[in-house]
Amino acid sequence: MRCSYIRLLVNDYEACFHFYSEVLRLPVLRGDGTSRYAEFDVESGTRLAINQREVMAEALETDTADPALPHQDRIAVIFEVDDVDVTAAKLVADGARQAMEPRDWTAWGVRAAHFRDPDGYLLEINQPLLPDLAL
């Protein structure tokens, strides 16, 4: 696994986008001030991303309140893997707590599964979705 993103799940997306793009002057790789998701170049193999908090809560179906969490997620650590399904099955077999089974997130361009560490932090494993090469 390779840590590909640190994703901050933010309440005020527009203010955070302005902060990272204009105040810190991080180059924007994807997204804009209204897209609710953006990626920034932090001059390393890992990218910094911001995501409107409600978007992730809706995706993980925690927007109706997960009783195991004192509040909605604030951060997600993203790991890129070669095969999400194989890696997810191994993590589950090894005792990892799965929050969402593998599925295609076509709007995000990835196949992903979600887990929680022992303290409840959100972890995502993903792989890029390959375009359909059928002619």
Automatic annotation (TrEMBL):
Signal peptide: none annotated. PANTHER family: BLR0126 PROTEIN (PTHR36503:SF3), BLR2520 PROTEIN (PTHR36503). Residues 2-128 form the VOC domain. It comes from Nocardiopsis tropica. This is VOC family protein.
